[in-house]
Amino acid sequence: MRSLRYSNAFWWMRRWQPPLPAGSFIGQATSRGHALAALLKDLVRTARLVHPDPGLLDVLWRAKYCLRGLALPRLTYEWFRLLQSQKLAVVAATHPHIRSKLQRPYLNRTLAPRERLRALENHYRL
Question: How do residues 100-114 score in pLDDT, each as one tens digit?
Fold first, then answer.
């Protein structure tokens, strides 16, 4: 019974199936579970860049940033992949807060996350 509860607790991990293109930031991932783990690792790594202060409030914001990224793993994956393009890598390095733009209201508060991603893609693809 215990293993059944444990396996049901992670139903969303089985449901999410990201694309695994060669040369992406998850290029080392060999399965869907590894892709999600790589996304989590990338979120934790970039959380310190987005919220750099050592205070307790920034620790909370870093945790929220990671949880929001995991709530929409496909969209986060696509957004991070776009930010790793040659043109946007320089912008992302200079302005790390750009990584959290997908998680915040953009242009209009009524935009759904998918619409927000499309608006960001249209804005940043020059």
Answer: 999 988 788 899 999
- SS3 for the chain is CHHHHHHHHCHHHHHCCCCCCCCCCCCCCCCHHHHHHHHHHHHHHHHHHHCCCCCHHHHHHHHHHHHHHHHCHHHHHHHHHHHCCHHHHHHHHHCHHHHHHHHCCECECCCCHHHHHHHHHHHHCC
pTM here? Answer: 0.72
Torsion over CA: 108, 81, 74, 6 (sign) = negative
Distance, in Å, from the CA atom of 124 to the CA atom of 18, rounded to the nearest integer, reads: 22
Q: Residues 14-36: pLDDT tens digits?
A: 454 444 444 444 445 556 778 88
